[in-house]
Amino acid sequence: MDTKKEIVDRLRLAFRSGITLSEQFRSAQLTKLMLMIKDNEKDIVNALHKDLGKPKFEAILAEIDMVVNEIHYAIDNLPSWMQADYVSKTLATKLDDCFVRREPLGVVLIIGTWNYPLQLLILPMVGAIAAGNCVIIKPSEVSAATDLLIAELIPKYLSQDCYAVVRGGADETMALLQNRFDHIFYTGSQAVARSILQQASVHLTPVTMELGGKCPCLIYGRVDIAAAARRLAWAKFFNAGQSCVAPDYVLCSQATCDALLPALRETLKDFYGKEPQTSPDISRIVSQRHWTRLTELLKKSSGKVVVGGESDQEDKYIAPTVVVDVAKDDVLMQEEIFGPILPIVIVDSLEKGIDFVNDKEKPLALYVFSDETSVVKTVLQKTSSGGFCSNDGIIHISLPGLPFGGVGASGWGSYHGRWGFETFSHRRACMMRGWALERLNGLRYPPYRDDKLSWLRWTASPKTFCSLM
Ligand code: NAD
């Protein structure tokens, strides 16, 4: 088996050969990637079920279709994304060709995580391939079945000179990071992000950080409670709450909480029946370690469980759970929950709710539920988050036209659609000059004189060129 260095060297050699530069090559590799997903849909669904008990419906919606749609979008738009952008000129640069050219970065590393083990690895890879890079992907060892399947499939479908899978956990990832990359794209926790950043700093490698945090859902003003309960429950309990953009907690008034609880109970009964553990539509917690972390959180919380609360260690099951009377400093409010537990925190007014959010790190997503436009606009204006969605949850990440990424502690950089292409491209500033207008150019040469300076300032001003046109 190749060592990690040999793999990086092989890809670097391929990159330097220029093979990834043409639109045809990129497009052909993206088409093969799409074939890989389509040919192996059944195996992918099975692997996701093995790792997370993921329902087929959720696997197709959030992993297979998300990736296939992204590939279609990239193939369709690649010719226009690859076009140079011509910029406006001054009189002094009138005869030059001045443009921004998108160039691939080189050999890039994508480190994935386990909650959407296919989507979070392959979707950034689409941007990296579209931008003309050679790519190493490192799946999460926690989602072992999908990890193995991806490692088997990628070399069967894609160019082995240009793309590779490296498997392993923390030690292997750290060993891989000893090598120089031209970009590192990491999805995962903030804690691990710090180690990755330290390693990246050795080679001054630029990074994209797709992290997490606590995504709030504010419910204020008039609201259609039945619809709100359905959308909230779907967004929260999709993938058993193991989504980086799942609503982590709800902020609302006591009156809203009183109305929401019966609606949530009703909704959960409709979604998963009287005994959710027997429902095929609810995922399992990914590992015993994560199951223990979540059940410990529930035990330590001083809040009151009003819906769910049941768990089964052997089955790695935790029921969709709602907790009320949650104090602002409760253990459930300290760190991202990343599981099917929904705390409701009573904050009486919208203004105080906004202050509550702004006192914490900027979240990856922020949700507001309200019939009142003024409430939605106020929250949008007075808060900051990676993404924002009113009257729904999670769904905003399905549009490739919208950038997906965090802000502040929830992440740096973005991808999806053109944003992924841009993340993995260098925007090279190009000025193609000939030898014309040498007298005009001569104004900048010594000996310096005031009259030359005046002329130069006039020719270099964008206003001069506009007024002459
Ligand atoms: P994880 O354990 O799968 O780790 C992520 C990756 O880092 C894996 O490939 C793993 O092998 C590697 N890794 C783990 N420990 C390491 C170490 N010490 N050194 C180097 N590499 C290491 O996933 P996780 O960290 O449990 O991820 C959960 C977090 O990810 C949550 O906070 C969640 O919000 C966040 N997340 C963010 C996004 C996003 O798109 N922004 C998506 C999903 C998850």
Which small-molecule species are bound to the chains here? Answer: nicotinamide-adenine-dinucleotide
Total domains, how many?
A: 3
CATH superfamily of the largest domain: Aldehyde Dehydrogenase, Chain A, domain 1
User: What structural class should be given to the helix and strand makeup?
Assistant: alpha/beta
Judging by the overall fold, what is the CATH architecture of the largest domain?
3-Layer(aba) Sandwich
Distance N to C terminus: 64 Å
CATH-assigned fold name of the largest domain:
Aldehyde Dehydrogenase, Chain A, domain 1
The counted number of beta strands is 18
For the biggest β-sheet, the strand order reads 10-13-14-9-8-15-16
Bulk shape: globular
Query: How can the largest sheet be summarized?
Result: 7 strands, mixed
Q: What is the number of helices?
A: 17
Helix content: 40-55%
CATH class category of the largest domain: Alpha Beta
- The radius of gyration is 26 Å
What are the low-pLDDT stretches, counting only 5+ consecutive residues below 50? Answer: none
Q: Mean pLDDT, as a whole number? A: 96
